Amino acid sequence: MLYVEASLADPETGGAGLMLTGQLGDVMKESAQIALSFLRSHGAELELPVADLKERGVHLHVPAGAVPKDGPSAGITMTTALALLLSGRQVRPDVAMTGEVSLTGRVLPIGGVKQKLLAAHRAGITTVVIPKWNEPDLDDVPAEVLDRLDVHALSDVRQLLELALSPATDADLVVSADDRAQVAA
Questions:
Q1: Average model confidence (pLDDT) across the chain
Q2: What is the reported pTM?
Q3: By mean pLDDT, which of 7-11, 132-136, 142-146 is the weakest?
Q4: String of b and e for 28-41 (b: at least 16 CB within 10 Å)?
Q5: CA quadruple 63, 131, 25, 29: dihedral positive or negative?
Q6: Is 54 a known active-site residue?
Q7: Is 114 a catalytic residue?
Q8: Active site residue: 31, 69, 73, 87, which one?
Q9: Catalytic: which of 7, 116, 155, 166?
Q10: Which terminus of the chain is less hemmed in, N or C, by CB atoms within 10 Å?
Q11: Mind listing the domains of the chain with CATH numbers?
C-alpha cells in the first residue's frame, strides 16, 4: 500500500506550481503532472474550483521517502488526492485504488492486479477501484479475497471521484495534513 498526500499552499505564501516529494521516479512524476492537468482542464465539468490553483502551490507527497517508487499505477490516486483538496470533501477511508490516468480522464490498465488486491485485503480495505481493462485479471485473485472486496472496474476517472469521495456536506470542510488518498501498489 502506498499513500498519496496532497496539500495546497495559501495564496499569500506565494509559490505556484507542483512540488513532488517521496523519491518518485520519472513515470510517477508524469502521473502527478497528468492528474493536475486533467483537473485543470476539466474543473468546470467536475464542479471543482480549479481557479484556486492559479496562484497556489500544490504539493504531492508519497511517504516512505527512502524507498524509490515508480510506475503509473498511482495516477488515479493522485487525481483523487488533488480533487479532494479542491472539493473540500474527504476520501473514504475504506477505498483503495490503482490505475493510470490519461489527460482525457481514461483509466488505463496496470500490472500486478492480484498482488495489489491481496495487499488491499491485508490492509483491511473493503472497496477497491481497478481499471476496467484489468477486469480479466480478477480471475487470478483467490475467491475468498474477492468475496471480501467490493471491486469496481472503471474506465473513466469521473466515475472514481463519485465513488471515492465522501458525500459533500453543507459545512465547510478543512483539509488537514492527515487527509490522503491511498493506492494498493
A1: 84
A2: 0.85
A3: 7-11
A4: beebbebbbebbee
A5: negative
A6: no
A7: no
A8: 73
A9: 116
A10: N
A11: 2-166 (3.30.230.10)
